[in-house]
Design goal:
Elements lengths: L17 H10 L4 H13 L13 H13 L1
Helix pairs in contact: 1-2
Length: 71
């Protein structure tokens, strides 16, 4: 089944709050500023991946983001 990325989301997901993201990054021993970069990056994408798919698990995406910073 082919998915149309322009198709509206069922129950629009607005993503986590900036405070939630900042808490995640601080608990992971990363700077608050990095959490803000992550937040505004995905906020600009509408909480979708670069390929246009809905971001289903922002914490997994944040973990990948942090891994990429370290490696």
């Amino acid at each position: 089944m082919k998915h149309d990325v322009s198709e509206p989301l069922r129950g629009i997901y607005s993503g986590p709050s900036l405070e939630e993201v900042n808490r995640f990054f601080i608990r992971s021993d990363f700077p608050l500023e990095e959490g803000e970069v992550f937040y505004y990056y995905y906020q600009a994408l509408g909480w979708r991946t670069e390929s246009g798919l809905a971001l289903r698990d922002w914490k997994a995406a944040a973990s990948d983001w942090l891994w990429n910073l370290e490696n």
